[in-house]
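Predict the 3D structure for this chain.
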Amino acid sequence: MPTSSSLKSLSRDELADFLAENLTILNEDEALAVLDNAYVTPKICQSIAQNQRLAAFYSVRLKLIAHRQTPQAHSVKLIHYVYWPDLVRLSVEVTVPATVRRAIDTVLLNQIGKLALGERISAARRCSTALIKVLLFDRDPRIFASLLINPRIREDDLLVLASSTEAMPEQLTMLAADKKWGLRYMIRKALVLNTLTPRAAAASQLRYLSRRDLVAIHENPSTSIYLRRCIERLHAPDFPAVAGQID
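Done. Predicted structure below.
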């Protein structure tokens, strides 16, 4: 019997002969070594996935889900028997086939409401775009803090939040203070325009906006008197003060 390490380097014919004789008696390490062989085929992956004894090993299930040679039907079936943290990890691994990643996202989205706060915080740090769109509007600010360091979050995602009437003031304040995203011009502008942004956070963005945008914001009926006065103080010659009590 070849060692687990030598199984990885068997030739195509040697691998086929070995499995024809030993598939039913493979142990966990041997099954994993076979799946690491460069000549593994969809038929081999299917045979391992259909073997109840081998598929009962958690590590084998993970390997099969991630393997590009595993038939999609088997990969999708196996994702229902994998723990949440591993599903989150697999959902963003580019080596996992795109169709399988989409199936994983569906499972994750269906389960998100059942997760404890700590699990949601952990997922927010590294989840896929599909989950980001849902977690953006989680009511716990700690989720948003984790999303801000997720390498897959995009400016467009944050603009949706910054412009939303469903955003929480705590989220908008965190976004304004963020050292990466808080410097983006469109985000600065969206924060100023959102009436839910705490006025100190909104006012701190004004000096970075163009005169054209400041004029539009000053003339916008929804802009608070406080922000109008701030704009007038920044550009006194262009914005004659209008009488009115600061709200």
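The chain has three domains: 1-81, 83-153, 155-247.
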